[in-house]
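Example record for the data management plan.
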Amino acid sequence: MENVFLFTGENGYTLSEELSRWTREFRERHGEENLTRLSAAGLTPSVFLNEVASSPFIAERRLIVVDGIPSFSQEVVPASRHKASKSALGMREVLAQVHPQVIVLFVAPKPDRRLTSTKELLELATVRTFTPLSGESLLQWMQEAFRAAGARAEAQVPALLVECVGEDQRSLSQEIDKLALFATDRTVTCSDVDALVFPSAEQTVWHLLDLLGEGHAEEAVLYCRRLLMSGESAQSIWNIFLWIVSSLVSVASAVSEGTVSIQSIMQETGVKFGAARSLLPLARACKKEQLKNLLLRVTEAEINLKTGVWKAGADSEEELFALLDRCLLSFPGSRRS
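Corresponding structural encoding:
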């Protein structure tokens, strides 16, 4: 059906941008009064038909945007305005009565494809699937986003941004706008990213995990200092470190008992895939005595923090960060451990 559309896919940023473009351009051409937005929750065939079977108001088109896909329950309604007989209507029957000048746009990022309504809609609608960008296509999009913001960026900047923020396009778009504004009339550099872009919590965890898992404790110390200078609290970094130590102990324990595959380690310990994969090489290589020393040092530090021996308040994070430095440098694989 040429006037029925479905926007779907897990790239919420691109989907919402395209939806905004559709509604904005439609308002400009046909007026606000010909644009209606409905929620699929509880939407019945009769209510839906009242909207889609009506002609536009002094315009060429009407646009009906439906958030989600209604699960029509075969409600019995009049078959037409000119007949007294009644029939049960599902998605296929309802869409057959859409006015030819009415455009219906369903928006469902993750539709339940088991439902009959969804199956019928997928058969009838023009479907646009918005998939997440990654790799080279994401980096190209970022360069285009810099140009659209009126800025130029060094070739290394997009990859560095992904490292700091992750692959979420909405977050990246916000950082690109900020960098473009900051670097007015000049090229955005990697130094600008270091100075202005605050790593996401998820990226902080995985980058620190990778550094420690690869035995680069000195680099981990420098990375944590950079986080602190960027505004991250020492307490939040300490909590991340405790989680990494706990995960390493669990993975190393499973390895010592003869567990070799990542899937088996995940099942036995509850450690997530990414953490198990990053820590497994270190868990295999580190000595029992190294792990014991690390655990003793971290446990002693945590007890002293909890009992007030060491200060860890918002106004006295220096002591906590000094503890973090010592614990990081005692991590197995470090040249100082």
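Summary line stored alongside the record: The mean pLDDT is 85.
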